[in-house]
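Aggregate trends can hide what the representation actually does to any particular protein. The sequence in question and its C-alpha cells are set out directly beneath this paragraph.
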Amino acid sequence: MFSNTIQPRLWFRDKKVTVVGLGSFGGGAGVTRFLDSQEARVTVTDLKTDKELENELAGLADLDINWVLGEHRDEDLLEADMVVLNPAIPRCIPLVERCVGAGVPLETEMNLFFKYCRGKICAITGSNGKTTTTSLAGAMARQRWPGLLIGGNIGRSLLPQVDEISEEDWVLLELSSFQLDDLASIDRRPNISVITNLSENHIDWHGSYDNYLAAKRQILRTGPAPDIAVLNLFDPLLRKWAEESSRELRAVSAPAGGTAGVITDMDAGGVRSISGGREAHLFSREDLQLRGDFNLINAATAAAAAAAMGVEPPEILDAVRSFKGVEHRLQLVGTFREVEYFNDSIATTQESTVAALQTLGPAVILICGGTSKGCGFDQLAATAAKEARHVVLIGETAGEIETAIRAAGAGAPELTHAADLRAAVEAAARSARPGDRVLLSPACPSYDQFKNFEERGNKFCRLIEERFGE
C-alpha cells in the first residue's frame, strides 16, 4: 500500500502533500514541519475541530499550512502528489481505498524517517512495557552519547531532525504495531530490533491477533549490521520467534538459558550480561527504583539493547540507579490519610493492569475502564479477584469488565460504576482504608472521555490533589 520509493529531497518542492490526521503524539506535527522545510505545499486535514486541536495548532503556528479541520475532503487527497497517513487511521476505510485506487502515493511519518535517516536505528516494540524499556535504554545510551535522539511512538517525531543524524549516530525508537504494519511496505529495518513481550492487543485496528503478530514480526526482518534481535525469552512466543529469526540473538533469559545477552535471576534479583562465555554483573533489583518483577525484565531488556549498541556495564548501572520511571506508569501521586494513590494511566491493556495489581496487591482499590480494543478481560478479572478488594468501573467497557469479573466466580471484589473519573476518584477515596492503595490502571484506551492517556493521568493527579488539598 505504501510507497517504497525514496524520493530525492528536491522532489518535495512545490508538491501538494496532504497530511491526514494531525494526532496528539507528535508524528503528525513532525511530518508537517518536515514537509514545510522541504518547501512542499502542505494541507493538514483532521476530523477534529480547531478547538479540539488547539495545542497542536499552536505548535505549528509559524508554518504556512492549509488547514482543513472537522472533515476530510476527497479533493485534498485525490488531487495531492502525496498523502501522509497518521498511524491510527485504519487502512481499510473508503477514504484510503480511494487514494489507492487513484494511484496517489501514500506515506507515513515513520516510513519517511526510515528512508532518510542516515544513522543506526535501535527500535523497541512489544505489547507492554515498551515505553519504560525505551526510556531506560535511552537513559543508558545517553550515559555514553548525551545527545542521543529518542522518538517514535513514545511521543516525539525525529523527522524534523533527520538531517542532524550522521552515519555514526545511534537513534532509539519506540515503534507501535501500527507503525510496523506500515513499515512492511519498505525495505529498511532497524539495526537492532527489540521485542519486550507479546499478547493480544489492538484487535479493533488489526482485525485479528494473527494480523497483530504479523505486524510486530516485521521488526525482525533482516536489517543492516549488526542485525541483532533482542528478545525476552521469558515470553513463550518470543522463544519460538528467536529460534526462527535470522538475526543474531541477544536474549533476555533465566540463568539456565546460557544464550548471549542478559541473564535475569528473578529469585535473587540479579541481572548480568553474558557474551563469548564471559559474564559481567550489570545491576540488582535493589538498584532499580521501579516496582514489580515486570519492571526488572523491562530493565534487563533495556540493558540488552544498550549493550548491543555498545554501552558499557558501569554506564548501564549508573542509568539504572538514577532512572525514576515513566510518568503515568505506576506513578505514586501521594499518600493521604495512610492511603497511597497511584497513576497508571498508561496501562491500556489488561496485561499492564494485571502487572500493576500483582505489584501493589492485595489491598487495592482499582479504577479501570475506557474504550474497547476487542481483546477481552478474563486475565484482568482473575487477577482482580485475588488482588483487588474494590473495583470502580468507568467508560464504555465498564459493563464488559463487570461481566468478566462476576464470571471469575468466588472472591470477586466489590464493584461500583462511576459516571466519570471524578466520580470514580470520589468512590475510591470513600472506600479506602489505611494501608490500601488506590490504583488508576484502566486496562483500556481513554478515547471515550479523554484525548489520550496523558490527559487522563493528569486529570487523575489533579483530582487527588483537589480532594485532599495538600
